[in-house]
Design goal:
575 residues, alpha/beta, Glutamyl-tRNA Synthetase, domain 3, Ribosomal Protein L25, Chain P, seven-stranded mixed beta sheet, 27% helix, binds adenosine-5'-triphosphate, binds magnesium ion
Length: 575
């Protein structure tokens, strides 16, 4: 079954569980098998473990949908846990945004909101346990020396001269580290495993470093912090996680996590790695996203060009569209890059069902209907959503002076242009046939106005004499329309794979200078006067748009979510 066929199956808007029920993948197969053998006593406990050092992006959505989706499907539970072990990079702002975004995506962790920092006491106790077992030591080598001693993929490492300190000495030193006797970087606690291991992660990894930095949750209680690798697996163990799902780069860390669990003799979760999401024309590395924000290449984390959840939300994406996307891309063991048009396809499909249709003119040109009475206004019936029989109709005012789209007129049309041109008749959507009689220009030869006539017998339908027009165009009534700002977005990068290149050029050099086009003088129909930020519309013939929070009472601002043209569906048909 092709992706397209699958997408055509009817979807329920809620609950999220429904999105992925039908779809199997290798992780489901593992869980099915575990359920059969009773490995975890029939339990499924997953978690989503973000580090609060940035906003969530569409790659995280894949992990969220997977972890929460599996829990829902197997009647299990999924925790939200912040892996907050690095106070120099973590902030409450990020915690808050992550909570908001996971919730907005439609998932619930009930009362299971956890923090690795909740486990700092336990983790410290385990560090002491390792020291007592002769499996950890305090090392005074500098960071550079540790790196040097570590060896390479082909060369074994070298043992630190501090490696064989006595247990007593190590216990005294870790206590001194903890009570703040040493400055940052003076020493670290390392596991004593195997400096000659083929797996570099097993060459006496650092467990604790000294950081005299306040933590956003524990304040100044600690001046030593566990490394991510020492915290992650044990946090999973504490929470009774059954299937600890993570991305491929952690496969090489698995033997280390297993070593901690076995050496400490605690409950063992099962780690399963899957391929992270990559998207064309997009960066998903947090380091790069932070740089885009900090260096002001974009207007903050929720800039509608950002691949963040908050950016996509502001752009007009729905949670349903993002969940459908995560379902469509599936879960695999080998890395691949997904075409961004697939994401656009998903939001288009969803908005097609739910977005009310309205008329808006982005680049206006004035039309005067010379045979229409000066002060007459008619209220014409317009359909709110042809995809939704319950959406009803609304009234749209029609009058003598209108705006139409500049693109819908050509003075000297080529062969296949069927819209308005001198002497030609077209239909105005929901209104009348009009014919262009005269083109008015300013002194410089720019077209400033079209003079047209209308045929009163064609109101809301066809001509009684059976004559045809080849195009229907949209319009707004000049006196009634609302002036609006419209923001048109293009890919943030000019290349499919926007990475730093081999010549040392930064990925920011690949930013698309035309990724944002502002149209300050658009007009929208008056029914949008009270549109609230976040609401979404289809501008007929133009695209899907959402109301931006920058809107003011007098002037709404719209973001183009996506065009109407479905490139992805086209590619699927050809393929
Ligand atoms: P960093 O490299 O800074 O650690 P990260 O992207 O791994 O960034 P985390 O906050 O650690 O960020 O991610 C939380 C979870 O989301 C992890 O389990 C991670 O594997 C998963 N995740 C992150 N990026 C992607 C992605 N592109 N596709 C799928 N899952 C992802
Ligand atoms: Mg990470």
């Amino acid at each position: 079954m092709s992706n397209l066929e699958r997408e055509k199956k009817p979807e329920s808007a809620t609950p999220p569980a429904g999105d992925s029920v039908s779809k199997t993948h290798f992780i489901r197969e593992i869980i099915d098998e575990d359920m059969k053998t009773g490995k975890f006593g029939g339990r499924v406990q997953t978690r989503f473990p973000p580090e609060p050092n940035g906003y969530l992006h569409i790659g995280h959505a894949k992990s969220i949908c997977l972890n929460f989706g599996l829990a829902l499907d197997y009647g299990g539970k999924c925790n939200l846990r912040f892996d907050d072990t690095n106070p120099t990079k973590e902030e409450q702002e990020y915690v808050d945004s992550i909570i908001e975004d996971v919730r907005w995506l439609g998932f619930s962790w009930d009362d299971r909101l956890f923090y690795a920092s909740d486990y700092f006491d336990q983790l410290y106790a385990w560090a002491v346990q390792l020291i007592k077992a002769g499996k950890a030591y305090v090392d005074h080598l500098s960071a550079d020396q540790i790196r040097e001693y570590r060896g390479t993929l082909t060369q074994p490492g070298k043992e630190s001269p501090y490696r064989n300190r006595s247990v007593e000495e190590n216990l005294a030193l870790i206590e001194q580290m903890r009570s703040g006797d040493f400055p940052d970087g003076a020493c670290v606690l390392r596991a004593k495993i195997d400096m000659a291991s083929g797996n570099v992660n097993m060459r006496d990894p650092v467990l604790y470093r000294i950081l005299h930095t306040e933590h956003h949750r524990t304040g100044d209680k600690w001046c030593i912090y566990p490394m991510y690798d020492f915290a992650h697996g044990q946090s999973d163990s504490i929470e009774g996680v059954t299937h600890s799902i993570c991305t491929l780069e952690f496969a090489d860390h698995r033997p280390l996590y297993d070593w901690f669990i076995q050496t400490l003799g605690i409950y063992a979760p099962q780690q399963i790695e899957f391929a992270r999401l990559n998207l064309t024309y997009t960066v998903l590395s947090k380091r790069k996203l932070i740089k885009l924000v900090q260096d002001k290449h974009v207007n903050g984390w929720d800039d509608p060009r950002m691949p963040t959840i908050s950016g996509l939300r502001r752009r007009g994406f729905t949670p349903e569209a993002i969940r459908a996307f995560c379902d469509l891309i599936g879960v695999a063991k080998s890395p691949s890059t997904v075409d961004i048009q697939m994401l656009e396809y998903c939001v288009r499909q969803d908005l097609n069902k739910r977005a009310p249709r309205v008329m808006a003119v982005l680049k206006p040109i004035k039309v005067v209907i010379t045979n229409y009475p000066e002060d007459q206004v008619e209220e014409l019936d317009a359909i709110n959503n042809p995809e939704d029989a319950n959406a009803g109709t609304r009234k749209v005012p029609f009058s003598r002076v209108l705006y139409i789209e500049q693109d819908d007129f050509m003075e000297n049309p080529p062969n296949k242009f069927y819209r308005l041109s001198p002497g030609r008749e077209v239909r105005l959507r929901y209104a009348y046939f009009i014919k262009c009689e005269e083109v008015i220009k300013d002194a410089d030869g720019n077209i400033i106005e079209l003079r047209c006539t209308y045929d009163p017998s064609t109101r809301g339908g066809d001509a009684p004499d059976g004559r045809k027009v080849k195009a229907t165009i949209h319009w707004v009534s000049a006196a009634d329309a609302l002036k609006a700002e419209v923001r048109i977005y293009d890919h943030l990068f000019t290349t499919v794979n926007p990475n730093d290149d081999d010549e040392g050029r930064d990925f920011t050099e690949l930013i698309n200078p035309k990724s944002l086009e502002i149209l300050p003088s658009a007009y929208v129909e008056p029914s949008l006067a009270n549109a609230t930020p976040g609401s979404r519309y289809q501008f007929e013939r133009v695209g899907y748009f959402s109301v931006d929070p920058d809107s003011t009472d007098g002037k709404p601002v719209f973001n183009r979510t996506v065009t109407l043209k479905d490139e992805w569906a086209k590619i699927q048909k050809q393929g």
